[in-house]
Amino acid sequence: MSTTPAHHQLSYASGPADLPLIGETIGQRLVAVALEFPDREALVDVPSGRRWTYRALDTDVDRLASGLLALGLETGDRVGIWAPNVPEWVIVQYATAKIGAILVNINPAYQAPEAAYVLEQAGIRLLIAAPSHRSSDYVSMIEQIRPEAAALRDVFVFGTPEWETLANTPADVAAVAERLATLDRDDAINIQYTSGTTGFPKGATLSHHNILNNGFLVTEVQRFTEVDRLCVQVPFYHCFGMVMGNLGSMAHGSCVVIPAPAFDAEATMVAIEQERCTAIYGVPTMYIAILEHPRFAEHDFSSLRTGIMSGSPCPAEVMRRVVDLMHLSQITISYGMTETSPVSTHTSIDASIERRVSTVGTVHPHVEIKLIDPVSGLTVPVGSPGELCARGYLVMKGYWEAPAKTAEAIDPNGWMHTGDLAVMDDEGYFRIVGRLKDLVIRGGENVYPVEVEEFLYSHPDIVDVQVIGVPDAKYGEELCAWIRMREGREPITAESLRAFCEGKLARYKVPRYVHLTDEFPMTVTGKIRKREMRERSPGLLGLG
User: Fold this and answer.
1) Do residues 255 and 280 make contact, with C-beta atoms less than 8 angstroms apart?
2) pLDDT confidence band for 6 (50 / 70 / 90)
3) Which in 175, 269, 279, 481 has the greatest CB count within 10 A?
């Protein structure tokens, strides 16, 4: 695929349009794929040993869809799912899509008050849940919050007789097909709640067209075909799992392999070897955990070919080890956000390691990107940092029942304002240099934490690092580095870190404070919660 070259001066790019967008709904695509590849494996759950061909998956989807129709679910009704990565999640995803019910993803890590907010804000009519996961007892939490959820009429828990009856309703193929024929590609079909770093989470509302095409194009960039087998260790409740993973695989007749209900490095290695996976998705911390695992050398990764590393910047050393030791010569880097379905930029499978670690690739097919001055709104020159804005089929319909918030994010010309700061080079590659809100202004100097982190990753004793700004009376903000040391190494100090940076980083970019940690506060998807780090750091550092 070729990309339209950037304008000579301005940070604007539009992606190739030689491959047509899919005009079907998700349910229509599943029916077509099941007819084309009936006997190919569609879904494998390694923990339980259960397997589905596309024919079997489509049959189970029709059974559940028939059960939901029998309960009186209408097009546009909201169905919540609160569960980790289990195969039932995938069946629910497709069954709701076939009948036009809007699937509302509930974060498996949510506690009762957070789940209650989503149930009420989305007006969830039917809730499907796992009985429990890790320390979360979903059944008791649902009992606790159910009185607050005015719209909630039915609850089904995996493994119960009620669930088994619903999931095994005799398939009324005609009724399901009749409903499917009434659905439109632009209908809302999924609500995903953003992490809510400021205020309450917002429900990004996505259409069939949004997510089916994004999943398809993401896997198209990785050259997926029906022979690919994708290890999905990222959560289904998030776009990474349900769109780039499930929908991207289904769109090509590929197979989704579930290694475990939640990320487990050893389970991932076992699944790759046992199922001969050709692709894998993960955030950098997941790849680091696999590479550092004491049993890493015992596993065979020779079947792997491609995949995605996303969510935060990838250190060059980690990328080299992933390519060399995990057989991932064609691993790619992508960038996006839930509100853009999610991917808007992607590296090609043959991009250089340098491009993979220093950029998030070029503009995706059928997408426009511009970088703007946050104050003037004008497109900035190539090479200058600006807020990344995206436009095209991938932009969400809006935030669920929050028109004012939607208007803040999507401007009248259809551009989604991401809040991310990026730089575009003259070959059309984008580099994320931070969040508008993560930018550290130290004594009038703009410091992009990503740049400092990239340099600190070159320290031989540092396995992971995150840089934030903390309040300072003299400079307004000072830099603080949260550092995870390699096992067995001497703890690093602010003084020794300063010495390491001497002559290599401008003085104002050198962290004044160091906080050693075994782990970073994270979302379930592995994204670092820098806001929480900023809140905790003054106390940890004794800054008052």
Assistant:
1) no
2) very low
3) 279
Q: What is the pTM of this model?
A: 0.87
* HSE-CB of 12 using CA atoms within 13 angstroms: 11
Which residues on adjacent β-strands are paired with residue 103?
79, 190
Do the Cβ atoms of 117 and 104 come closer than 8 Å?
no
Beta strand pairing status for 279-282 and 306-309?
parallel
Kindly list the distances between the CA atom of residue 395 and the CA atoms of 340, 446, 501, in Å, as whole numbers in the listed order. 5, 30, 41
457: its two tokens: 């990753």
Which sequence spans correspond to the domains of the chain? 24-401+415-424, 438-541
pLDDT value of position 195 = 66
Q: Is 225 exposed, middle or buried (0-12, 13-18, 19+ CB in 10 A)?
A: exposed
Calculated CA dihedral for residues 65, 212, 435, 232, nearest 10 degrees: 70
Q: How far apart are CA 258 and CA 311, in angstroms?
A: 20
End-to-end CA distance of the chain: 54
Q: 521 phi and psi, to 5 degrees?
A: -65, 130
Look up residue 157 and give its amino acid.
V
Strands 440-442 and 445-447: antiparallel
Please state, in angstroms and rounded to a whole number, the distance separating the CA atoms of residues 10 and 426: 9
DSSP 204: E
**Would you state the structure tokens that stand for residue 343, as one six-digit string?**
């991917």
Number of Cβ atoms within 10 Å of the Cβ of 137:
14
| The pLDDT value given to residue 374 | 85
Using DSSP's 3-state secondary structure scheme, residue 182 falls into coil
The predicted pLDDT at position 544 comes to 65
Task: Compute and round to an integer the Cα radius of gyration of the chain.
Answer: 23
The domain 438-541 belongs to what CATH superfamily?
ANL, C-terminal domain (3.30.300.30)
Angle at 477 between CA 492 and CA 459, to 5 degrees: 25
Q: Which residues pair with 516 in a beta bridge?
A: 483
**Residues whose CB falls within 8 Å of the CB of residue 370, separated by 6 or more in sequence, listed in order:** 10, 11, 12, 13, 379, 386, 388, 389, 415
Return the CATH number of 24-401+415-424, one of 3.40.50.12780, 3.40.50.300, 3.90.180.10, 3.40.47.10: 3.40.50.12780
pLDDT tens digits, one per residue of 172-217: 999 999 999 999 999 999 999 986 544 688 999 999 999 999 999 9
Model confidence over 154-165: pLDDT tens digits? Answer: 999 999 999 999
> Is cis: bond before 235, omega within 30 of 0?
no
